[in-house]
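hey so i finally got around to running the thing on that chain from the lab meeting. sorry it took forever, my laptop kept dying and i had to restart like 3 times. anyway pasting the input first so we r on the same page abt which one it is
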Amino acid sequence: MPILDCSVETCVHNSDNRCCLSSIGVEGQYASKEAETSCGSFAWRKECFCNKAEEPNMQLTVDCQAVDCVYNRDRMCSAGHIGIAGRTAHVSDETECQTFQAR
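ok and heres what got predicted. didnt touch it at all, straight out
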C-alpha cells in the first residue's frame, strides 16, 4: 500500500496533508500525463474546518484507473509513495496524481 501525501487543502478527507480514507480512486483511464488524472475520492470542503474525529491514514489502498501508468498493476497502484495535488480544488478534475508516469 502506498504512502499518500495530499496537498488538496479543500478536500474534506484531508488532515495535515494526509487522507483520512482507507482507500482512494485515481481516475484518468486514458491518461498520458499527470494533468489527465484526478482523485475520484475528492469531496469539496465548503467550510474551513476538518472533522477532527477522523485520523489520517499513513498508508492506504489506491484503486488506479490510469491503465497506462507504470505503477498500475491490475488497476491498483504499486508505487511506494503517491502524491495528490490540487491545493485549492473545488472539483475532482482540479486534482491530479503527481506520481503518474506514462509507460
